[in-house]
Amino acid sequence: KEKPKNPWHKAVVIFIAVLGIIAIVALVTTAVLQNKPLQQKFKYGIVLDAGSSHTAVYIYEWPAEKENDTGRVKQKHFCQVKGPGISSYSLSPEQAGHSLRLCIQEAVLNVPRRRHHETPLYLGATAGMRLLRMENQSLCDQVLGSVEKVLQSTPFDYQGARIISGQEEGAFGWVTVNYLSDRLKQGSGTTGALDLGGASTQITFATNQDETGESAENTVTFRLYGNDYFLYTHSFLCYGKDQVLKLALAQQTQAGASTLLDPCFNQGYSTNLSYSSVYSSPCITTQKPLAAGEGFTHRGTGNALQCQEVVRRIFNFSGCTFSHCSFNGVYQPPLQGQFGAFSAYYFVMNFLNLTSDTLENNMEKMARYCSTPWTQIKQQFPNVKEKYLAEYCFSGTYILFLLTHGYNFTSDTWSNIKFIKKISGSDAGWTLGYMLNLTNMIPAEAPDTPPLPHAGYVTLLLFTSLLLFLILLCSLRSLWVRCTSQRQII
Ligand SMILES: Nc1ccn([C@@H]2O[C@H](COP(=O)(O)OP(=O)(O)OP(=O)(O)O)[C@@H](O)[C@H]2O)c(=O)n1
Ligand SMILES: [Ca+2]
After folding, report:
1. Annotated binding residue at 199?
2. Which residues does the Swiss-Prot or TrEMBL record annotate as the active site (predicted)?
3. pLDDT digits (tens, 9 = 90+) for 20-78
């Protein structure tokens, strides 16, 4: 006999099914929305690189909630300040600060207004100001004071203007190169940093801990993301390409002659130089020749081999008191790993097309360039500033000599050097590393990574909810079957 159907059984089962589905959908949606990355809030930082030949303004940007991740900070904007470096304003210090205004205005427009007050602003001055400080501390202070006044009046969070040490310049260049190439987190092999400026040049690379014992002043240790790095670094003041040219000219004009025949300049090149433009630099320790008049005619003869001998004379390879030296008695451990060469290394070698060839081929190309007559050079490169164009033979010969005879790169290790301007869209240089350090954005210990990335988390959740749904379905089905079968039994 059939027991009357209980109308409620069906309803109950359907109700539970619908409830279950709603619960699962609600669970998944909240989970997905709950953990969806927040709307990207960006933070900013500004660094002014007050170099000997120019000042540059870098604006960096990064996602706020990821600032302790490596490789997150990107260069958002770059502004080259018109005119020379701030140390050139020593006779009119007020102009030093004034020269920064246009780029500061650009920075105000490139950082969202609501972020201005929390955007740190730093100025670091390098070798040009180190030389001015050597010459005249008072003028140096006046120039920094003028710059400080302008930067304090910006809407940003001004954090100070100072002359950074050569060691900082080298070490932070290394941090930048390795941060941008994402080498700091794995603790794997790092890239050395080669920086050539107008007044100094830096070499920095990671070495073994025991190698650092010989010279404390050349050692910098970092603990970054849980990895210890023992860096060798040295900054050669006066060995930037502008100052080293003055060293070479001073070397060649000791006799005080009225004409200098210079193999490092192209045949047919001729210009008049004042002795004071050469001997006024604190890098020149030799006295201006007594017999000298006001100036001299600087004439090119364009001979690369003779130019190498001119360059050699500005290096001193004797008097090493360490296990090994680079030059001028400076300790240098054996070179290790890959290197990134940037700033003027890149400007010069890229122009001369010497960035991707063997050392031997580069030497040949250099010889050909130096022996090319000046008229032909000017015809070939009508849009290049004559000051830069005239100096490429000297600068290229200097760079090849510095890297080989100075730092001991050989034909075999030459290919370890990459000449770079940017890495992942940001300029290679000390400024990014400087800001990362001062804003503590590279933690000593690795931040703990969430067990699951967001996507993984959602997949896991979907999977479990599906499983739940299937279990619910089966239990409902068995409930249904039991209800209908009970009816038959009855
Ligand atoms: N497109 C460019 C830009 C600069 N230069 C030259 O490269 C040198 C400057 O390089 P840079 O890295 O800007 O030096 P600074 O930072 O100004 O100098 P320093 O680091 O020594 O303070 C100068 O001789 C400049 O004439 C060049 O040849 N081509
Ligand atoms: Ca520089």
Report:
1. yes
2. 169
3. 788 878 877 777 776 665 567 999 999 999 999 999 999 999 998 876 777 689 999 99
pTM greater than 0.90 (yes/no): no
Question: 232 — phi, psi (to 5°)?
Answer: -95, 135
pLDDT in tens, 167-225: 999 999 999 999 999 999 777 799 999 999 999 999 999 998 887 789 999 999 999 99
Residues with Cβ within 8 Å of residue 147, at least 6 apart in sequence: 50, 86, 96, 97, 100, 123, 161
Give the helix, strand, coil percentages of the chain, each rounded to 5.
45, 20, 35
Residue with tokens 């300029």: 427
By residue count, the chain amounts to 490
Q: Looking at this protein, which amino acid is placed at residue 214?
A: E
Which of 186, 148, 190 is CA-nearest to residue 173? 190
Structure tokens that stand for 141 in this block: 């202070």
Any idea which residue has 């600087």 for tokens?
A: 298
Ligand 1 centroid, distance to 313 Cα (angstroms): 23
Ligand 1 pocket test target in 47, 49, 52, 53 with most atoms within 8 Å of CB: 53
Which residue segments constitute the domains of the chain, with CATH numbers given? 40-163 (3.30.420.40), 166-426 (3.30.420.150)
| Spatial separation of the C-alpha atoms in residues 25 and 31, rounded to whole Å | 10
Ligand 1 binding residues, C-beta < 6 A: 51-54, 85, 126-128, 197-200, 240-242, 343-344, 347-348, 388
- Written as six digits, the tokens of 383 are 């849009």
Give the span between the Cα atoms of 4 and 149, in whole angstroms.
94
Residues 267/373, Cβ–Cβ less than 8 Å: yes
Substitution site in 140, 204, 247, 343 for ligand 1 pocket (most atoms within 8 Å of beta carbon): 343
DSSP E strands in 278-325: the ranges are 295-300
Report ipTM (2 d.p.).
0.98
461 CA to centre of ligand 2 in angstroms:
52
pLDDT of residue 489: 45
pLDDT in tens, 418-444: 999 999 999 999 999 999 999 999 989
Q: Hey, is 77 helix, strand or coil? A: strand
